[in-house]
Amino acid sequence: MPAYATDGDQGFGGVNMRLDPGQIPPGLAANARNKRFLNAVARTRPGVVLLPWSNKAEDDYIHKVYAENSIVRYSGKRAFVDSTATPAITASYVASGLIDGGFDDASAWDDSGSRWSVANNVATVTATGTVENLTQTIGTTAGRDYLVTFEITAWTNGNVTPFIGNSSSDATISTHRLGKIGKFARILHATGTDSDKIKLQADADFIGTIDNVAVSEPAQVQNRDYHCSDHAYTTEATCVAAGETWVKPQGPLSNPDRGPYFKRDDNAAGDLVAPLDGSGDVNDGWLDQGSRVFKFGTTYGVGLYSDPNSVEYILVATSTGVYAAREGMLAFKLAGLVDAGGPVTFVQAFNQVVMFRGEEKSPYLMKNLTAGFTAIVQEDNTEEFEENDQGDGTQIIPNASNAIYFQNRLLIPHTRDLVSASDFLNITRYLPVLSSFRINQGSADSLVALHKFDSTTIVCFKQSSVYMVRNVYGNLTDLVLDEMTSGYGCAAAKSIVSVGRDVWFLSDKRGVCSLGITESGAVQGVDQPISEPIQPLIDRINWHNAHLAVSAYANNRFYIAVSLDSGLDPDGNKSNTAVLIFDFLNQFWTGYDDGIYVKEWVEPIVWGRKRLCFLGYDGTINLYDDIELGGIEDETVDSAGVRSSTPITDELTTRGYNLGTPDRKKWHAARVNVQTLASTFTASAQVDGVEEQTVISTITTDSTKYDKPFYQADYVATNANDDFNVPYRQDYSVSLGASDEILIGTGINPDFHQESSHKLRLREEGRYTQVKIESSQGSTRLASVLVDGLPRNQYLRKET
Predict the structure, then answer these.
(1) Final residue of a structural domain among 174, 198, 216
(2) Is this structure's pTM higher than 0.85?
């Protein structure tokens, strides 16, 4: 009998979906979904991770009567600073360390001078003078964040500033100058030698009255670390050895065993009672809700803001206002704008942020987090610069959908083909005639967006053409306009992204296109779309939703979220329904991700470095494609804030193996080598034809079973026998129940992937055969594929 000929791949680097499967070069697959190609292995992508500190948190508890079903965030621990370097925590659970926030007892407060007086249940300053503090020691801890609320009930002039700590406090967090009548709530960071005190500081001009001061420790950090029921033990081994319990993450760092969310039930209705009692137990009338992530609701955009001290915040525009959040602090609502009203773009200019809201709505300006976003007021220039055109007639910057900050100005595309430049170092105003220029006036297409190309050049993207504007500096008198291409333009403003020295963007019905620098240094458009190898995916784009597309460059990959097929999310809303990925290390497309609905990308600092995240259409912010922090499932959350996880389904279809000849073959067998973790997968083979395929049984690995020796006893999931690393177990995943514990012993590695080989018997004939691996759960890595068969001339006995 003739020997079987073989074909296969010893590894995988990407996909080519355009070519006939039998023409695809070795090392490339014909299709991949939810896969990454790393070290020549096709692996399941990392799971999506919800950022628990970036959600629209429920209000922090204040000492008042709550209605049934009210949800509050509450830590309950008061703290103090002792003489050691480490802050100590008392055992006292209270609503707040503050005594007499309603100013019933003057003795509870310390007045540093003669201006403050406490009487008639208020604190009042009646005359101007020197700066003075009204102080109380409340046991707050250095380094923690606290919620301070109070009311200014009468005001003549000046400002009152709440501090937790001394005058060396972080100016962007702890120094909030407040004036005029109203109720105020601020998150303050306790710092300095007086970090155990609250200070209400009246400036020299303040005359007014305050009341209803409250301080509580917000549950600002939902602990993601396991911990011991007795906090004297910091490792699982010492904890278990002491007879204590190694428990899962739950509440804030200062109180990891309860909350941080509590729900009011109907018991003791109408009573004034805190969620926790003096021993840290849940009071009658409250239910411990554990860790929750609450969605932002209707969202319109996301951006980043870096304050003067380089502390970075995520900004989220919603239908209920604008929220800010950073790692270690849950989101808090900014003052000012109540409803963003529609899609927005955030642009930072020095220490300020402009929020553009479209050509039908005026932009808003945020000068600091305390003030929030307010309507722009035209400001005079503090100095005269030769970069500014001289003359009268300046106006507030125009309405627009987006802009860029370039050469110390805002450049704003608007009114079809007009670009207006704000004053130099003054983003509130511009001179309409002298500080504006048109891009191909009279053409039928409109400006979509501007993008920085180099220090003096911008790219102007229109719907059907692309232009370069050079010499953008000084008073803009030396501008030069060049047409790059009139054959195609940009379909979505937020699809434009710099990739090295090139600029990539989505072009209407062409796909992902590129502007690059030639060897001579000239800039030119690349005629062949970058996305040509994945043209079948480009053909599936719902071009009615193409304007929703958003791109990012991170992790040496280009990501573009697009709307495929119906273009609807699970709630029936128009959305981006897939992410297409190009891997620059492999120089190939990796296919696409589905089950992910990206509204906009953002790269905040998470665990010490910039990481790619996205704002979802469901109102959550999620960490994406992070091999370090992502698991084997996608984290999700329901409308009540309860978190859960969903298995990632993925698939890969290999190229068509043809044994190096165009003839038909009689296929014999396929062998696949996989590396699995808690995996269930199916392998099948198909030949060129209609539904001609062979399927083997679905394979589910078992973390308690050994492949050999046959007499090996089942592994105990709690690792009670300290035998986690014994070889030949089918699967090395760790799966525990809510109350289970696991013995660390000599060590465990929950990311171990077990490698195995599987044979698929084939009975079909065809010009080529393809192998398809589909996974319904866990992590499945495809390392190699080998097929064998007989060419036509070796198995035919008769030819006609």
Answers:
(1) 216
(2) no
